[in-house]
Amino acid sequence: MSDAVGRRVRTIAGLLVLAELVVFVLVAAWIGVGWTILATLATSALGWILLARQGTRALADLRERARTRRSPGAELGNAGLVAAGGLLMVLPGFIGDVVGLLCLLPGTRNLVRGILTRLVLTRLPAGLRPPVRVESVRTAEVPRTDDRGPGTTDAPPRVIEGEVVRGPDGRPPA
């Protein structure tokens, strides 16, 4: 990891910890310190319960996919979001609890997956983004009208339908 990326990660982590602390102090001022600590413990317990239930369901879906030899696809993403959501719920902090709850609940998991997918795809270099699918129309050969010889045709380049693939170096072919 480069020094700039490490510095950025530390800055973001520090800002998140600071935001959690500010929210904790605001909640403590609003409902009291005792109730805030109790709420923090309750959200951690809720995180453990949701992690156990949703984690078991996600692993069962993965096992079923493996048993039927189908691609794990969304089930693998669900398992990752459940793990991340459970970790966020178990750790103390109200902001992390809200984000973790969004990752753990099946109804909001697709929303989180969509946001993360867009975020990752916009940050990828163009050569690493998913392949582009192109539809084409075949062209007909047109007879030549110049003096290059009889029987020759001046055909526009033929279009071969397919998809763009990456070369061994990871870049699209030139």
Automatic annotation (TrEMBL):
Quick one: where's region Disordered?
A: 137-174
Does the entry feature the keyword Transmembrane helix, yes or no?
A: yes
Record-annotated membrane-spanning stretches: 12-31, 37-55, 76-95
| Cellular compartments per GO CC | membrane
This protein's UniProt keywords? Membrane, Transmembrane, Transmembrane helix
The Basic and acidic residues compositionally biased stretches are 137-149, 160-174
> What NCBIfam families does its record include?
PRK11463.1-2 (NF008528)
- What's the name of the protein? UPF0716 protein FxsA
